[in-house]
Write a structure and sequence with these properties.
The structure is a single chain. By secondary structure, the chain is an all-alpha fold. The chain is built from 3 helices and no strands. The chain has a domain of 34 residues. Helix content is 80%, strand content 0%. The two termini are 22 Å apart. The mean pLDDT is 80.
Length: 69
């Protein structure tokens, strides 16, 4: 069975980086709970998700250029 991109990523990632990501996610979650306006909270959450997605795409594209053929 082929591994997913996430599984391949997890094999290569530094565990310390993963802990930092998890801590950042926990911090964001806690901060979002402080925002009472649901629309604003959802907009902030979507924006954070979009930034994370775009950073992941950029990192993947940068790494893809260095992959052996």
């Amino acid at each position: 069975m082929e591994q997913s991109i996430y599984e391949l990523y997890m094999e290569q990632v530094n565990p310390q980086d993963t802990r930092e990501i998890m801590q950042a996610e926990d911090t964001l979650t806690a901060l979002l709970k402080l925002v009472e306006n649901r629309e604003l909270r959802d907009a902030i959450d979507r924006a954070a998700g979009r930034v994370a997605y775009l950073r992941e795409v950029a990192a993947f594209e940068a790494g893809y250029g260095f992959m052996p053929e």
